[in-house]
Write a structure and sequence with these properties.
- Helix content is about 45%, strand content about 15%.
- The protein has helices at about 1-10, 15-30, 45-60, 60-75, 80-95, 100-115, 120-130, 145-155, 165-175, 180-195, 200-210, 270-280, 280-285, 320, 330-335, 340-350, 400-405, 425-435, 450-455, 465-475, 515-520; strands at about 220-230, 235-245, 250-260, 265, 290-300, 325-330, 360-365, 390, 410-415, 440-445, 490-495, 510-515.
- The strands form two sheets. Strands 1, 2, 3, 4, 5, 6 and 12 form a seven-stranded mixed β-sheet that branches. Strands 8-7-9-10-11 form a five-stranded mixed β-sheet, sandwiched between helices.
- This is vWA-MoxR associated protein C-terminal domain-containing protein.
């Protein structure tokens, strides 16, 4: 603690008698008698000053306790150089809160009005959620809502230039209130954020904290991994995150993040754990929804990236176990000329078989037998009788012509691993994407496709729209250290043409509203 460090600057802090004198003189000022301040006795100077610092922090009037400490040491050690550091520390600890007094008074009036409607347990939950894991909320548990407001405004956070703790608390509180009270509080939070000059990212984060997803609403976290030029050559990637709430009206942007450091391809999985742990608030907010999915928006060079293996916590618990994880084609999102066939095949995928003239089914791409053998009959035994198969020869137009004659194919399985260095495989996947196929699944390890063929063959047409959730269940069946288990190596490309943010992809105009505090106030 900063105060404890300042107190250790006094040479006499090691003198037990001097320490007792300080406690006695402080008690005189605080208790109006000679009764010393009572703190836990400590054998060492460092433990003693830490206990004294905690006493000041927890005192019913922390400013009075700090004033008593200052006047006592100034009286006892007037010429001590350490007094300068102590004065600076106390000034820092007792300075006014970050909210402008007029705005704080408005918030205080609102808290007086809504306070009787806020259970103490709800207030404590909001305060702890604002502080986050590993940090205790600086409340005694006896404060009224207006008192908690003042106390949290004066609390010191780790980032003095970031969002004030008091606004984080109010945002968390708003999310736990009825709609009418939530609206009033959100308006005042927006006004305070504007007066403080908070940036768009901080305002979006505050807005995300205030809202609870509508029943049945879907939360989607999109992680865009984009190739950027590297000064020394080689491939490097930038990572952005966008959290959306989706309902029948479209997408609503709740929060966004950007990682400043660029990563090489080999660093993506290892550093991915750091990314998701650092941005764990986005994952936690998404988890509030009844339906949460993580989408990795990837260029062609990364389409086979094992995104589901990214860790979701410090222990490396796979994000693919926690929620559905899919990949998407970043190139398709940017190309307007590919949109119509994409929408048509997506609708086919989601048609109810009883209502559709032709139910959707899954086709397969395999390598031609005259190529590298991946598409040999032995590896595709039993498939051709049930599902259509195209054997890739690397010729232009093969996929286009084949899909024209198989208008019922809305999903593809690959009998080979997608590798960016495999020209034939990449060309086949690119052509399938251009022709509108919205769902493609494959084994990344290049293993026998027979188990995957069997898995998909068990699905009825009406189950194909549930592939992301089904894949999560399959992944959870796997033994993590079993490299031969197919479920540890499955990638699903799942591209929803109606789940596109026009503000973060070129050309497309899907319905999206960016929820800033100012927009909420205008409503």
């Amino acid at each position: 603690m900063r105060l404890a460090e300042a107190l250790l600057g006094f040479p006499d802090a090691i003198d037990v008698e001097f320490r007792h004198t300080v406690l006695r003189e402080m008690g005189t000022q605080l208790h109006h008698d000679r009764r010393p301040v009572e703190i836990r006795q400590s054998a060492t100077a460092s433990e003693h000053v830490l206990e004294l610092s905690r006493f000041c922090e927890r005192h019913r009037d922390p400013e009075a306790a700090l004033h008593a400490l200052w006047t006592t040491l100034k009286f006892l050690r007037r010429d001590e150089a350490a007094l300068v550091d102590l004065r600076g520390c106390i000034d820092w600890l007792t300075r006014r809160g970050r909210l402008p007094e007029r705005q704080l008074a408005r918030l205080e009036d609102l808290c007086v009005r809504i306070g009787p409607s806020v259970p103490r347990a709800v207030m404590e939950q909001a305060a702890q959620a604002a502080c986050g894991a590993g940090r205790r909320a600086p409340l005694r548990g006896t404060e009224s809502l207006p008192e908690a407001l003042r106390r949290l405004d004066q609390a010191r956070g780790d980032d003095e230039d970031g969002v004030p703790l008091v606004l984080l608390f109010l945002a968390e509180l708003a999310a736990r209130l009825p709609d009418r009270l939530r609206g009033e509080l959100r308006e005042e939070i927006g006004a305070a954020a504007g007066l403080l000059g908070l940036g768009d990212e901080d305002r979006l984060a505050l807005s995300a904290r205030t809202r609870q997803p509508a029943p049945g609403g879907r939360m989607i976290l999109q992680l865009r991994v984009e190739e950027v030029s590297a000064p020394a050559g080689g491939e490097q990637y930038a990572i952005e995150a966008h959290l959306y709430e989706r309902d029948e009206t479209g997408l609503r942007l709740l929060a966004k993040r950007e990682r400043q450091e660029r990563l090489a391809r080999r660093e993506l999985v290892a550093s991915g754990a750091d990314v998701l742990v650092t941005w764990n608030d986005l994952v936690a907010t998404g988890d509030h929804g009844e339906d949460f999915r993580i989408e990795f928006l990837l260029p062609w060079s990364l389409l086979g990236h094992p995104a589901d293996l990214w860790g979701s916590d410090g222990d490396g618990y796979r994000i693919g176990f926690r929620c559905p994880v899919v990949v998407r084609s970043l190139d398709r999102l940017r190309e307007p000329s590919w949109r119509r066939p994409w929408q048509d095949r997506w609708k086919l995928l989601h048609n109810r078989p009883a209502e559709a003239r032709t139910p959707a089914r899954c086709g397969w791409l395999a390598m031609d037998e005259s190529g590298d053998g991946d598409g040999s009959p032995e590896r595709l035994t039993g498939l051709q009788d049930r599902e259509p198969v195209l054997r890739l020869r690397g010729k232009g137009g093969d996929v286009r012509r084949w899909l024209d004659t198989h208008a019922d194919v809305a999903c593809l399985g690959l009998a080979f691993a997608y590798e960016p260095t495999d020209e034939r495989g990449v060309r086949g996947v690119k052509d399938a994407v251009r022709e509108g196929i919205p769902a493609i699944i494959w084994r990344r390890d290049g293993g026998d496709p027979a188990p995957l063929i069997s898995r998909l063959g068990e699905l009825a047409a009406e189950e194909l729209p549930s592939l992301p959730e089904l894949l999560r269940r399959w992944r959870r069946l796997a033994q993590e250290d079993d490299a031969a288990d197919m479920h540890n190596h499955l990638t699903l490309l799942w591209d929803d043409p109606d789940c596109v943010d026009v503000n973060h992809t070129s050309h497309f105009a899907a319905p999206i509203w960016m929820t800033t505090v100012e927009q909420e106030r205008e409503r």
